[in-house]
User: Fold this.
Amino acid sequence: MTRGLIALRAISGILFLIQLTLGILFWTAHALSLVPLHMLLGLLFVISLLTLAVLAARAGAPRAPVIVLAALAVAILALGYTQTRLVQGPTHWVIRVVHLALAMAAMPIAGRLPAMVPSSRAAGGGDGSRGRHEGAGSMPRAL
Assistant:
C-alpha cells in the first residue's frame, strides 16, 4: 500500500509541475493550442489526487486531510472545466488565481498524506509485534 501511495504522490507532483508550466504559458499568451492537453492532464491530476485520498483512507490515514484533499480535487476539476464561463473580461484573472491556489493547497496535503498512514497498515499489516494479528491456529512468524 505504501508503494502505491508514494507512486501516486510522485505522479501528482509531476502532473502538478507540468500543469503549472502550461498555466504560466497560457497566462503569458503562449502555447494556447495546448489548452486541451492541459485539460486532459488536469483530469489525470484530479484522478491521481482522488485515488491517493481513497487509498490513504483505506490504509488508515486521518479523515480530515483525506476529505480536504478529495474536496480540493473536486473543486479543482469543477473550476477548471467551468472557468471560461464564470468571470469574463478583465477580472477573469481572479478565477485563474483561485484555480491555481486550489491546486497549490492540494499539493502539500498530497505530499504528507502517505506519511499519515499508520505504519502497521502501510507495511502490509505487520506492526512488529508477534502474535497480535495472527488468527487462531496460525503459526507464529519466524525470526
